[in-house]
């Protein structure tokens, strides 16, 4: 039960920070999203995001900083194994499963439901 609570708290804190940035600054949602991914990459590159994952589990891996962390960890691993070429292939290999799932499930939902554009 504590895993669920910690995931809820950590994931919720990340979402609260994003909402505060959207409400109180002039940053666009796109810039906030890119900032969150970049922060995840930086924290992942230094091994700091792993500590947050130990506490928050899925609450830390699912939001955008978790995606950035996945990119950083994958690139580090590929660079260790393949050298410089790993800097180009690591992020793609590490994030391929999540990106593929997002595309497949997004497309499936578009087929099942009637998507509408915002007015």
From TrEMBL:
Segments passing through the bilayer: 6-22, 29-49
Pfam family of the protein (one): SpoVAC_SpoVAEB
Alphabetical UniProt keywords: Membrane, Transmembrane, Transmembrane helix
Keyword tRNA-binding (UniProt): no
Keyword Hydrolase: no
Domain of life according to the entry: Bacteria
The name this protein goes by in its record: SpoVA protein
